[in-house]
Structures are given as structure tokens and as C-alpha cells.
Amino acid sequence: METAANPKQEDAFRNYAEPARESVREFYRQNHAQQTHAFVLAKKADFLRFNRREMTWWDALDYLNTLVDDSDPDTALPQVDHLLQTAEAMRTDAQPDWMVLTGFIHDLGKVLCLFGEPQWAVVGDTFPTGCPYSSKVVYSEFFAANPDAKRHEYQTGTGIYAAGCGLSNVDMSWGHDEYLYHLVRDHLPLPAQYMIRFHSFYAWHREGAYDYLQDETDRAMLPWVRKFNPYDLYSKSAARPQLAALKPYYEDLMAKYLPLTVRF
Question: What are the tens digits of pLDDT across the range 54-113?
Fold first, then answer.
């Protein structure tokens, strides 16, 4: 998605060999070492109670203005800028309004950082836990430090899962994707739910790994996740969107699909 404002070539994105910031490699070292299956189950039990705070969606978006994602090798802009770049690229291409909204809110689960969660438990590429690690996951060498790497039942065959069980039955590494999915799943169509829940699962939707976990619904939704990905990735540029000018449109769009307030 090369534009005058963004002359960067597509193959220059997701450059983990030479990331733009030193924090990226250290982020994944911590993430891969500490995201165990037990950790994921504990976080789900804790955060999916949604008992922290009730906020409007804009309250959450205002918080994201203070957050720079340590896992992102492509941009150091605040998260709201990235969300607007993603959504506006979709809007320019006349994508359905529910997809534009999905682009605008897809990283909103990063408000987990507001509740004291370290970034290695919130952002970054996701991966299944409880089954063998794939070399297709970025910086997969760091999994050697994860205690689950030494658990035979997790690293043999299909791990704790049955082949074809479906990704909805897999415990992915914990973070903003899974969290936001549970917040909005009752309000958005299934393709949007998949875009939110699995947009960071690059090993699956980009590299073709973990296909043995898929069911028919996953296969049907995969093209939607792949359709979402270029907007999420290649819309990033140094040109900052004008939030004040765009806010009325996105306020109306959120009001169409989402409740006014949400319990985080």
C-alpha cells in the first residue's frame, strides 16, 4: 500500500531482522518466555470478568493516545494514529462500514496496559499455547526459555488439542486480540470477530502454520482476516491523521454498532 504520504515498500514492513526500535527484540524475548498455557488460562479467568472499569469507547481511545507499542517494528506513533490510518484506508477503498469500524477499534484491547499489564502480555504476534511451537512464529528461538517447551504433552503431536478442533477452542497467547474479541463479539458480524481475534496470528494467516487446528469456519473466515491484514500493516506512515476532523464520522459509526459504554 504505497502512497505519496507513505513511500515505504511492502517488503520493508515487519522487518524483525532490523527493527526500527531496540525494544522489539526484547519484547519478544519476554513474551515468548512468559506466555505459558497456565498464564493464559489465569488471564482469561481474571480479565474476562470485565470488572475493572466502565468507560465510553472514546475514553479508551484517549488512553491509547499515550501508548506506543513496543512490539511494532514499523511505527512509533501513538495507537490512535495507527487505528485511524487503518480505518481511513478501508474507507478510501469503500469497504463495508462494519469493516471500517473494525479497523478503527481493532487494537482497542490494548487498554489492558491501563490496568497495569506489561506490554508482553498485551501486544505482539499471537500463537497457540498447549501445542508445539512453530518456527513460523516471529523470534521462535525465544520459546526455548518457556517452561511449556519442556512439557511433553504440549510439544508432541497436536498437543492438548484434537486435530481440526477449531481455533475458537484453542487457548491463544493472551493479549489485546482475545480481550477485545470478547468485548465486541455480540455486536459485530463473524468476519469482524475473526479480524479482531486473529489479526495478530501471523503464523496462521500469513505463514500457513497451525493448519491442523482449523475447522471449516476457520477456513471460511481466513480470507477475511487476510483481507484485513494489508490495511492494518501497510497503512502505517509518518503522516498523522487529523482526529478532530474525523471524530464525528467515527462517533456515528460506533453508535451504529456498539453500546455507548462498555465494562472493561
Answer: 999 999 988 888 776 666 555 556 778 889 999 999 999 999 999 999 999 999 999 999
DSSP string, 137-153: STTGGGGGGSGGGG-HH
Q: Among 194, 244, 208, 84, which Cα is nearest to 134's?
A: 208
**Judging by DSSP bridges, how do beta strands 261-263 and 54-56 pair with one another?**
antiparallel
For residues 206 and 223, give the distance between their C-alpha atoms in angstroms, rounded to a whole number: 11
CA dihedral sign of residues 249, 63, 36, 28: positive
Res 234: pLDDT: 64
C-alpha cell at 101: 469500524
Residue 158: pLDDT over 60: yes
Q: Is residue 195 within 8 Å of 102, Cβ to Cβ?
A: yes
DSSP string, 188-247: S-HHHHHHHHHTT-HHHHTT-TTGGG--HHHHHHHHHHHHHHHHHHHT--SPPP-HHHHH
pLDDT on residue 4: 37
Cβ-contact 262, 183 below 8 angstroms: yes
CA angle centred on 173, ends 170 and 177, rounded to 5°:
90
Q: Would you say 262 and 55 are in contact if contact means Cβ atoms under 8 Å apart?
A: yes
